[in-house]
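Example record for the data management plan.
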Amino acid sequence: MSVGPTLLSLDVTHAETAARLHMEGQPGTFLTRLGGEVLTVLYRTLPSSAGGFGYAAVAQPQELLGFVSATTQVGSLFWEMGTRRLPALLPPLLRRFVRNPALALLALQTVTYPLLHPADAVPAAELLSIMVRSDLRGEGIGALLLAALRAECQRRALPALEVTVAAANSGAQRFYQRHGFVCTRRFVLYGQPMYRYRAVLSP
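Corresponding structural encoding:
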């Protein structure tokens, strides 16, 4: 009888592997174009940032199979990356911007992204990423991670969980729809159409 993965709180020890899974799971997106070093800074910052939390699905010995990350304060997360984590963030960013100046304009859109979604009176959580190792997709790990995240949101008395999905990513949209998310709006980010999905959480 097989034993399922263990769920742990996402922490800094998962950062490098989480960055690799992100690069593998979303090739060609803006964040992956910034490179693994930038994503590693993101996943080192998120667990200790205001409102940041997530889960890692691991096998023994501490092998990361997938993870999910979220925050209630996207703006605070970006602010912390741009201040306290700037020494680690700036060199890889500058190298990418020199090679591809258009990425600097896209980075500005990322910084202003929180302004596209005014905060509710009671803060909702935003699901930032959910990634599963490519050879393990379809085995229920993503659903397990999402269920754990929803339970944590309910524990924190958050009214809803939201996520932004590229309009072209029909697979992700089907996944969220199966798990009770409803599309609430369409907008443009990085020159691409995006959908905003929302799942209302039971108290």
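Summary line stored alongside the record: The chain has a mean pLDDT of 90.
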